[in-house]
C-alpha cells in the first residue's frame, strides 16, 4: 500500500475518504484532527500527493518552505511556536495548506484559516479497519523478514493504545516471534537483562519475567488454577501465592 492510500473498511474511514476525495478538487485549506497513529498524514498526502510535509515545530524550516511552495502539508500545527506569524506567512505567499492536529479545539486563527475541518475517530471506534491493518502489516512483515504471509492470530489482542503505530509494532513483533526457538528466546531475555542486573536482589526482582508468561499462558490453555497447578506440579496455594505476587501483570486473567 503506497503512502497516499487510506483504508476505508469502516463507515467512519469511508466518510473521511469521501471528504478527502472532494477536497482534492477544491482549492481550500483543510485541517485533519485526531489521535496519533490514525492516518492523518496519510489522508493529508492523499489530498495533496505532491506536497512536502513539514512539522510545525520546525518553525524556521516551515517558513522557508512556505516561501517556495504553492501547497504544503503542515503536521502538528498545534505545536507551532508562533501561530500568528505562521498564518501571516501562509496568507502572504498564498499557499494552500492541509494541516494535521491531535486535538480539535476552538481557535479563532485556525477557524479563519481552514474552511474544512475533518476529525478522524481512533481505531478503537473503527473496528473494521483493524482487521485490514493487521493484514497490511502482516504483508509488510512477510516482505521484511522474507517469509510467507501466514500469521497466527490465536489469542491475538490488538494493541490500539497508539492506534496504527502500536498495532504495527505489535504485529511485527508477533510475526517475528511466532516461530521463535528456545535459544532465541533466552538470547532476547539475556540481552534485556544485561544492563539491568546489578543489585543483590535481582533474582527475585526479575523472576516475574519467567513466572508471568508461564501463568498467563497456562491459564489460557488449561482454563483454571486447579488444572494449571496440577500441570506445573505445584499445590494450588503455591500457585495462588505466585498469582498474588504478580497481580499487577495478571489482572483480568481467568481465576
From TrEMBL:
<dbReference type="InterPro" id="IPR009057">
    <property type="entry name" value="Homeodomain-like_sf"/>
</dbReference>
<dbReference type="InterPro" id="IPR027417">
    <property type="entry name" value="P-loop_NTPase"/>
</dbReference>
<protein>
    <submittedName>
        <fullName>Fis family transcriptional regulator</fullName>
    </submittedName>
</protein>
<keyword id="KW-0010">Activator</keyword>
<dbReference type="GO" id="GO:0003677">
    <property type="term" value="F:DNA binding"/>
</dbReference>
<keyword id="KW-0902">Two-component regulatory system</keyword>
<dbReference type="GO" id="GO:0000160">
    <property type="term" value="P:phosphorelay signal transduction system"/>
</dbReference>
<keyword id="KW-0238">DNA-binding</keyword>
